[in-house]
Amino acid sequence: MELRHLRYFVTVAEELHFGRAASRLNIAQPPLSQQIRQLENELGFPLLFRNKQRVELTEAGKVFLEECRLTLKHIERAANAAEQAHKGATGRLDIGFVGSTTYNIVPILQNYRLRFPSVNLVIHQMKTSNQLQALHDGSIHLAIVRTPIQNPLLNSKVILREKFIVALPDTHPLASRTSLRTQDLANEEFIIPSRNNGSIYHDAVINLCYKAGYQPKISMETPEILTIVAFVSAGVGVAFVPASFQNQRNIGVIYRELDEADYSMEMSFVWRKEEKSQVLQEFLKLME
């Protein structure tokens, strides 16, 4: 039994006229009649009463018609679902991110959800090393991390270079300045990201101070950038944070730009070179 037999039968059953059915199907009437006969022979019972005056459904034909309609609807639904999957418009997309990229990725993900509402988008906050392991394991499709990262099994694309700014308690003596130099903070105590949570961010902060000619005094290390800002507000120390964190309106914290324009961090998408997910490919195309 072929799919076209079902379509032919449904059309004849709806028209109850072989000529009109053949016209709808854009085929000649004799082949249509032959196809219906083949279907009936395969089933072993008649689906239609036919004579020169009329065509009618048998009781078996009435039951078969309803089942054929359901079958064709299921096939159409299956074809549509497969097409959406081929287009990357359905399925699941697991994305990891580090906390320091939070304010950058929110508009990206909002835009993606608007374009692909049927995709199950699952977001995981993870430190960089865990994201890279999750990529290797296949438990996430995409990592959003601070780079550079050197790994021959991974593709990466820089999507943002973001300058550092300084987070200060609003009672700090330097709060009256509109901008600062890194050297101005040589005697300050710093709250910095834990190295085991994100070595790139940690090392970038340390290197920024070294370039300015001093080793930072560290009062606290913490794995979360939101925690860093919270403790700045408590007066525990000052911190270098990505510029996007000006959007974090913590009471008791102010942000000041650095005069040095070359101090920045990269944010990148990272994914496995062998990754076949069409959902991911469409995400990356949209991000272009």
From TrEMBL:
<feature type="domain" description="HTH lysR-type">
    <location>
        <begin position="1"/>
        <end position="58"/>
    </location>
</feature>
<keyword id="KW-0804">Transcription</keyword>
<dbReference type="GO" id="GO:0003677">
    <property type="term" value="F:DNA binding"/>
</dbReference>
<dbReference type="GO" id="GO:0003700">
    <property type="term" value="F:DNA-binding transcription factor activity"/>
</dbReference>
<keyword id="KW-0805">Transcription regulation</keyword>
<dbReference type="InterPro" id="IPR000847">
    <property type="entry name" value="LysR_HTH_N"/>
</dbReference>
<keyword id="KW-0238">DNA-binding</keyword>
<dbReference type="InterPro" id="IPR005119">
    <property type="entry name" value="LysR_subst-bd"/>
</dbReference>
<dbReference type="InterPro" id="IPR036390">
    <property type="entry name" value="WH_DNA-bd_sf"/>
</dbReference>
<dbReference type="Pfam" id="PF00126">
    <property type="entry name" value="HTH_1"/>
</dbReference>
<dbReference type="InterPro" id="IPR036388">
    <property type="entry name" value="WH-like_DNA-bd_sf"/>
</dbReference>
<dbReference type="Pfam" id="PF03466">
    <property type="entry name" value="LysR_substrate"/>
</dbReference>
<dbReference type="GO" id="GO:0032993">
    <property type="term" value="C:protein-DNA complex"/>
</dbReference>
<protein>
    <submittedName>
        <fullName>LysR family transcriptional regulator</fullName>
    </submittedName>
</protein>
<comment type="similarity">
    <text>Belongs to the LysR transcriptional regulatory family.</text>
</comment>
